[in-house]
Amino acid sequence: MTRIRIMTEKDIDIAKQLMKALVNEMNEQFNEDRWNESINRRLSDEEIFGIYFTLIAEENSKICGIAFSEVREEIPGSVIYGYISNVYVTPEERKKGIGSQLLKESISSLRRTNVSKIRLNIKSTMGDALKLVEKVGFKEISKTMEIK
C-alpha cells in the first residue's frame, strides 16, 4: 500500500538519490549547489511565504517517489500561485498510480493555502508524464521554445 507523507530531514539522502535519478532520466546534470539551496530553503522559514511541501511516496515501507510544491508570486506583490516540480517515481514502481497520488496530494496541500491557481512545467519529451498531468486535470497554457 502506498503512503504519501511530508519529507523529513531523515529522508534527505534518499530524496537526493531520487532527484539524481530524475535529472539522469532527463539527460541533464545533477547540480549539487542547486540541490543544497533548494533543500535549505525547504527546511528554513526565511522565505517570504515559507510555504513548501515536499512529499514522499512509500510503497511497502520503501521510498519510491517524491514531489516538490511551493507557493510563488508572479512578481513581488502580485498574484500568488502554487507550483509543483520534480515529481518522480522510481521505474519499478511506475504504472501503479503513485505519481497520480503524489500530484493529487500536492494539489490538495497547495489548495489549503488558498492559491488561485497551480502550475507545473513538463518537457514535451516526457510523454507518460504529460499523460499523467493531463489526467489529473492540468491544461497546457503556454509553450517554451529553446535553441542551442
Report the order of strands and helices.
EHHEEEHEH
Coarse shape: globular
State the helix count.
4
- CATH top level is Alpha Beta
Percent strand equals 25-35%
The biggest beta sheet is recorded as:
5 strands, mixed
Tell me how many strands there are. Answer: 5
Assign the CATH superfamily: Gcn5-related N-acetyltransferase (GNAT)
Uncertain stretches of 5 or more adjacent residues: none
Residue-averaged pLDDT: 87
Based on CA atoms alone, the radius of gyration comes out at 15 Å
Total individual domains: 1
Structural class: alpha+beta
Helix content: 25-40%
Please name the CATH architecture: 3-Layer(aba) Sandwich
- Span between N and C termini? 44 Å
What's the CATH topology label? Aminopeptidase
Strand order of the largest sheet: 1-2-3-4-5
Structure explained in plain terms:
The chain is an alpha+beta fold and 148 residues long. It has a single domain, classed as Gcn5-related N-acetyltransferase (GNAT) (Aminopeptidase, 3-Layer(aba) Sandwich), CATH 3.40.630.30. It contains four helices and five strands. It has helices at 12-25, 32-43, 98-111, 127-136; strands at residues 2-6, 52-59, 62-73, 80-89, 118-120. A five-stranded mixed beta sheet has the order 1-2-3-4-5, sandwiched between helices. Strand 2 and strand 3 form a beta hairpin. The N and C termini lie far apart (44 Å). The mean pLDDT is 87.
